[in-house]
Amino acid sequence: MPEHDSAVESVIESELALLAPEVRRSPERVGALLHPGFHEFGASGRHWDRAAIIALLAVTTDAESPPVVTSRMHGVRLAPDLVHLTFDTEHDGRRAHRSSLWRRTEAGWLLYFHQATPFSEQAR
What we know:
Blueprint: H1 6-19, H2 21-24, H3 27-31, E1 34-41, E2 47-49, H4 50-60, E3 69-79, E4 82-91, E5 94-105, E6 108-118
Pfam family, one: DUF4440
Protein name: Nuclear transport factor 2 family protein
Domain DUF4440: 12-111
């Protein structure tokens, strides 16, 4: 696989957009990035579907909250229409290892699955 992969770059850009407060507060903008079959296992252990996560983000994202800090983001194209991202986040003192699967559709690259696993600095 080449070092430069435009699919991976596009998916990273979209993943970072999903972490931005101005996107998270907008059901339309979040919805435009989520696959119709989206689901997530959150850091809380809860299972979220597309509608539930869109509604949650719209009401819980504070414009004044500190930004989500990402690190160690890495993407791999698993198939022509599938990209896997892994990365870590820190937000309000909470850390999580994250894994996302993005599928290419007629609408573009959409987030199909996401999982977050909390961790402490000692467990890293």
